[in-house]
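Why predict the complex rather than its parts? Because the way molecules touch one another can change local conformation, and only a joint prediction can capture that. The input here totals 662 residues.
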Amino acid sequence: MSVNAVHIAHHKPLHLRARRWAANSGWYAIMILMALVTALPFLWTALMSSRDNSGNVFRPNRPPELIPYPGLIGWGEGLQIAQETGEYTVMPWEATADRPAGWWRDYAPGIEAGLEGSPLAPYMYPATTMNYYKVWHDVDLPRYFANSILVALAVVALVLLTCSLAAYPLAKMRFKGRNTVFYLILSTLIFPEQLTLIPLYIMAVNYLGFQDNLLGLILPFGTSSFGIFLLRQTYQSIPDELLEAARLDGASELQIWWHVLLPLIRPGLATLAIFTFVGSWNSFLWPLLMIRNRALFTLPVGLAYLRGFFSGNLRTIAAGVVIATLPIIIVFAIFQKQFIRGLAGAVKG
Amino acid sequence: MNLTAEASQTRLRPRARVSPQERRRTLVAYLFLTPALAFLAIFLFLPLVQAVYLSFTRYDLLNPPQWIGLANFTNLFNDPLFWHSLKNSFIYLIVTPILIVLSIALAIVVNRKLPGVAFFRALYYMPAVTSVVAIGMIFDFVFAEPAGLINGALRALNLIDTPIHFLTAPSSILASIMVVTIWRGVGYYMVIFLAALQSIPEELYEAAAIDGATPFQQHLRITVPLLRPAITFVAIISSIAALKVFDEIYIMTGGSGGLLDSAVTAVFYLYRQGFEYLNLGYAAAIAVVFTLITLSLSIINLRFMERGATDVS
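Output of the joint prediction:
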């Protein structure tokens, strides 16, 4: 709908568009206010992560330092020398034990001179990449990242497979016990997962060897009652005649499922995949219990660990939070239509 | 094999009570169901039964479980911290009505066909895809004293002299964490209500407008009653989510449960008893009581909403 609205607006003369904006200015005011409430905590974290260790953003009786300009920018070793002298450049091929590789440069002095007398100058501060380098160097975020992706993708693959298999007979076959099985699966939705947490933990540690094992973060989530329910509804929208035709052609049920049905339920699969991925990506308590080995941390557990590791150094923690959240925000920005349509579709059923 | 089965089926179908074809179909159906049912059996049904069993035992992972009858439950009822944690979980339920009102209002706003509205929808939804752990840490920066976003800005504007103790005073910590839950949930529930709103026919509003209803009256008389199924749905899922809140509490109290246990909720207490003190039987008893409470709450919710629905129609 909104796509159409934008489309039409582009063909209208400018003054009509302006009038339309003005007529709706009240709505835009509400939306922008709410946008600020949503975005400010994120922006504040990004602001914190780019500051060096001197002073606060807000100081009594002085303007807040909100606008960044390039300050100490770079990557690698030699940060301390750069902080003293303003520069440190050792390319990887020239690096020795005494002079490790690194590239830093303080652009602040030059820019400060240019800003002299500008009305915005009191609102500006020199941004630095040093917090990002510190957290990247001290905490193995890329590895936590890889672990999270690996676990989430494996869970998504398993859930899509088991749910799309199980939902097919529940939607499209008549067999003994169908209703019993369906209600049995549906009834599991009402139990909070906390009820199974303790026995699952005991089983995982004592019998299955899941402690410090990524399989332990995958297998317990290998199917989803919600997913079976969702895909059953998607299958039901497919006309029976299609299946009959395929059966007359001599296709086995497995062939029908793979060649005929799966391509048709792709939107349902996409919705389930998105939900499952986000759920696995964000899950915290179970990986916190299962994983002690730092090399196997997932991102949320790694973030919680980082918080303790740098306790007190809020700016480095902020850089870690930015590194950890930015990728999912980018993925979301690319697929936001599917995310929102998927949720809306799942609820409408 | 396929062909023979089908050939015999055409001959036998009318008379046989359980035809080979039917038997075969049942077998195929269960083959399709097996992987999912196997996962559910191992990781859900078995633990469900064990949870009930464990709640009658004393168990610390090292020694075998020891049957102690109802002792866990009687201890639980005499445990002031359990009641305190339960009270906190129920206080946390306040987020549900706030979330419902805010997300309906927001859904009504972004349901208008305005240029750029898709951008705002996506922005509001963004917190729902960000991990609670990251959001908890982000709000640590927002609530920090004295130089966090809120305290710093208020002090710079000379609106306050001493910082507000969002996370350091027992009286305000739970409310501060609830703000985070609401902030994260509004966009998510907004999308659910948006889907429901878009299924309401436009003509209803046009007819009401012709009859002279103000926009506010229109929403009160048309939108809210027709959103009832969506409201029931959101009430149930958001109240269950509120009762079982853990991640936010763990992160924003640094795993301590807050000063004087001021932010200990039922599930956090379960975590502490089970995984910090290794009283796994006792923790299982907490889980059983907690489950009974969530189940009855969901049933009350459904009943209440159903009765409301019949009143309207």
